[in-house]
Amino acid sequence: MLTDGEIEAVIEDFHRAAKMASELGFDFADIKHCHGYLGHEFLSAHTREGKYGGSFENRTRFLREVVQGIRAMAPGLQIGVRLSAFDTVPFRPDPSRSVDGKLGPGIPESHEKLIPYRWGFGVNASDPTQIDLTETIQFLSLLEELEIPIVNLTAGSPYYNPHIQRPALYPPSDGYQPPEDPLAGVAQHMEVTRQLKKRFPNLIFVGTAYSYLQDFLPHVAQAAVGEGWVDVVGLGRMVLTYPELLWDATEGEVVQHKRICRTFSDCTTAPRNGLPSGCYPLDSYYKTSELAGRLKIAKAKR
Ligand code: SF4
Description:
Blueprint: H1 4-23, E1 28-30, H2 38-43, H3 56-59, H4 61-73, E2 78-86, E3 91-93, E4 106-108, H5 134-145, E5 150-155, H6 182-199, E6 204-207, H7 217-226, E7 232-233, H8 237-241, H9 245-250, H10 266-272, H11 284-287, H12 290-301
Parallel strand pairs: 1-2, 2-5, 5-6, 6-7
Antiparallel strand pairs: 3-4
Helix pairs in contact: 1-4
Iron/sulfur cluster binds at residues 237, 240-241, 261-267, 279-282.
């Protein structure tokens, strides 16, 4: 475990990186507080001793010290935050429902002995399979206090509960079959973002987890922005297959349905097996490459 002194050194690295980014002409830096990255880990460091753990103030000290240094060393650089606004316990494939080597649907890891649950952010401590936005709201108030104008909301971590931030029909090779209809996951993201946007109208909210909507994505995105549920719809997986989707949809071009992301998750499975991320099933660059053969072998071994 890093000492407080070593964390201070890491924070100084963030400052230097921000100065470099500013000198290179970047407009803003995203200080990640999501998906198990360091900032996210600190938000759930309830049991850590010292000035970076325990209280909400201590668990957000990392953010405040990073921002303070960026403002001093790169005053012109804008700051945004990608936040896992809610979380749940780790999930695993249900061994009793694994068929023919195919992973079973996801079930929560046993957590009954871990109540109150002190290892997550945006989680209900008495029932960590449920979300609790109390501290998420406190965190967004802190962003306003620090004059950080833009936040991208996501959830959990792709390393222990991939279904809550990347709803998908086909799991990554080290994942589990969907424990719920992936649409429920999309709806949860949209509802949490809608609630928080209503509470923080001055913050710019970038929404996430729309790719599973597939052909309906442009319609839902337009409605969500139009209704004020979100300010910007962020695209992740869909950009790997079809970066022009929203352009085509809004400019009245023919939507190329063959290029729409179908949530096969190879873009996650590949890097988990030491290969570059990309859309192996739909992008001819990857599909026809020798990498595709190596991915096939890696998946067969799982
Ligand atoms: S591999 Fe392609 S189709 Fe599958 S999730 Fe990634 S981008 Fe979507």
